Protein 1
Amino acid sequence: MAIPVVYNFRSVKARWTSAIVAVLGIAGTVGVFIAMLSLARGFRATLVSSGSYDNALVLRAGSTSEMTGAVPLESSKILQDAPGVARVVGGPLITTEAVLVAPIPMVATGTDANVQVRGVSPNVLAIRNNVKVAEGRMFQPGLSEVIVGKNATKSYKNLGLGDTLSMGDTQWKVVGVFDAGGSAFDSEVWCDAHLLNGAFKRPEDSYQSVTVHLASANSFEQFKDFVTADPRLNVDVTREIDYYSKQSTRMTQLITILGGLVAAVMAIGAIFGALNTMYSAVAERGREIATMRALGFGAAAVVFSFLIEALLISFVGGALGAAAVLPLNGLTTGAMNWQTFSHMEFAFKITPILLLSGLIFALIMGVLGGLPPAVRAAQRPVATALREL
Amino acid sequence: MRFRGLIFANLFRKKVRLILTIGSFAVALFLFAFLAVVRSAFSRGAEVAGADRLITTNRIGLIQTLPISYQDRIAAIPGVKAVTQNHWFGGVYQDEKNFFVQFVIDPDNMRKVMNEFVVPDDQWANFLKDRQGAVVGVKTAERFGWKIGDRIPIKNSLYGPTKTWEFNLDGIYHNSRPGGDENQFWIQWKYFDENVPAFAKSTAGWYVLKLDNPDDAARVGKAIDTMFANSSAETKTETESAFAIGFIKQFGNIEFLIESIGVVVFFTLLLVTGNTMAISVRERISELGVLKAIGYSDRAVLFFVLAESLVIALIGGLAGLGLALLAVPVLGAKLNGLLPSLVLSPAILSLGLGVALLVGAVSGLLPGIGAMRMRVVNALRRV
């Protein structure tokens, strides 16, 4: 026969101080666990959502990021006619881009951040269709105008609509703000690629990358085969989404290792706390338990009852921890993208799955912290326990 | 001490609880040391920066180069003791995962400016003679098992079409500053300059200069930037620490994050340990009452409780810091290249131990005072 759950509620109430401590210990652990994971997820999601499955990114052979290596203009001209590239009335959907980092002061600290600046072709919005101009308008080709990402306009100085920005040897006018759906582009500044090369005194016929919109997602192999076979081209082709997800691995790895370690060690601490609480609960109620056994409740029922109590405490702790970090969802923070040495804004991303795994984590801590004391409670000989005190 | 026996008997009365409480302390202190190490890794650059050094970069941005001719002109400014220049090489050894910083250096002036890097004189002499020579920090050498005389291929796509440059390892450097960088890979500017395409020839990435007198920093910095104003490559000169802080500020939020996590972690575990201490005193109230009844003073009772919690805190704290001492190098190896080197400094260790004892004192004091104030009759009547 099972011991009524009401018994557990009452006993938690009777020892509420130590129960609260155990709850807080588990809540803190679950909170840190979820916060760290959501940071890693957010970083990854920001970069991965930058890439599109329907786009192919062309870099110089051997280049690890857009920052290293150049693609000559002639290569871009060959790529225009490659099979698999989407074509519309205005011509092939291909953007030849100059990418660099420029120092722009951050609003928060006043010190310079390395902001990624991307010189693009005028038809870029047709190629990256996850990017939309939200305010103002697109820049005019041939004019010193820039459009800025929605995070860039908030995080960096002089990037409001209508502001003038000094970059290279040129003064640029901010004519538009674009929304790239929370991706890495949202931290970038876009302008005319020709003018950007000129402003930074870079070779006029050399660019960092070429991105093409594929006729269909399946055209990738066709496009890649053509590019690989053409002896005039010395380039690597990847799907845009693969390029960006690869960029996120380093930082995600760092956060996951650090966060995982902190959460694991904290979990040990919280389990110790739960064990202590439950052991003292068992010790204080030695006579009570013995009485129940004497009344006919079996050893299994006692184990089960104490386990329920531990799970109750850990569940409340887990829920509390999850609720405490929930406001972090969507909060943006800055970090360095190690692959390009550029500053990037990204948001904590707390998903239902993450919350659920936090709760499961809490329950596991509850079982580990509650089972040994529960077993001890059931093992004590009834007669000695009754005689105690 | 007279009461040692009693205190130890009390300590070991509940072995499981003793182990758990010491374990909680150890966990808390381990996390404390670990987070402090990570946090200091982020701000390391500014801490180890030389006070008497300036860095001159292209005003447009770090990726723009400066003409090599600036070196002599900067050296001629009064107050400048020595000037050296660096270039970012940005190559890959075997695989992208094997990241380490590669600098093109100016061997003639490097040691005059960066005197914290120590290379044995015979190795340095070999490096000077060998155009394809390279010197590497001891950490990177250990990481890849390199030894002097090895030939090291580095793939580079920053300068012209991707190609593999080969270098002979002539020397291994150590850093004389605790926690200073020992990961860099240096190659000779002359060899670099011969092999790069026209756009990168006769350029320096940035200049590092040493001053005669650190107080001169503002004047010299201004003199340099004025000298090159309105030229094709304008400069921005700042102290080495300001330069490093500029980099760190870009991680600003991350650092704050680590601190908030640290606070959450620490207070959570504080609560857990404090509670345990309170439970163990509460269980013994009647015993403490007996002690008082047979003539021990209030102070003696407080002392017993306090001594017990301090001993637990000390053992737990030492265990946690010892574990951290073992774990940090392992973790540093695992995170190689992702973070600047992780160093567990004596300052962190002593701060940690101080915090542990403080927590021990506070968590013993509260129940201890309760026990001290308790009237003997009430204590004995419990049960």
Protein 2
Amino acid sequence: MPGRVLDTSVLINHWRRSRTSWPNARETRDWALRLVDVRQTNLIFSPVYLEFNCGVQSAEELALAEAFLSVFEVKDGWDVRSDDLQEAARLARRVPRDGKRRQFADCLIRALAIRFRCEVLSDDRTFPRH
Amino acid sequence: MIDFCFYRQQRADGGVRTGLDIVGSSAWEDFHAVAPEDEQDPALRWYVDVRGQGDAIPADRDELRDWLLQHTGIIESALSWLAERFAVGFDIETWPVRWEVPNAPSGTSMEIVISATRRVDSLEISNVLRELGQNWRRIINSIPRTMAVS
């Protein structure tokens, strides 16, 4: 895989674009497989998994979301370390010129990307920058 | 069936990673950093993949390297044609853009896949594609051959 990790915005945008009226778990898994095929990566970080599930609004939707997420590999193995949190804190302290708020998960995702020496694919304009 | 993905991608901090995957595993990678370590920004600005699949594609890294060199003309032309399309302005609704390479070598199919953030304009992508096409032979030549162990 070309060193790419997907952030939550990519997963959410793909989920919304794929959404049909009455999807089942197999369909949502197929949506994820299409995303992996297009982006050539099945890697996410644990905060992405959490953030995606935090958007779920019902038990039915949770089952679909879990089927969707099952296709992805959590690159950090759910092992977020103190160093990652400190790097995320450093990124959070960088206030951009436009004063836009940083998102906790985005800072942590980027910190993990730095540790794992990989790049983050994001559809989000406000992904934290220096 | 064998598949490969040659990729080149630029980060927000200017670093460029180039690599070659064969059947999902990394066969070669090179990272050219620009920013100091404390100013790293791993968000991707753009990426370009040259992907191929088919029974005629070698699974061995050295043989695939030679195969990619052998088909430089096809790949160069495809990248150059796409560069022209981007130069005149592409109306892109969703990334990535996937484009099937015409006249792919017999027994294979190839595609070029391009993605970029909203901050990257069409002209920059055009330049990226043109530069990649012009340097294709040099980049592929820079993939080291496997050392024989005696």
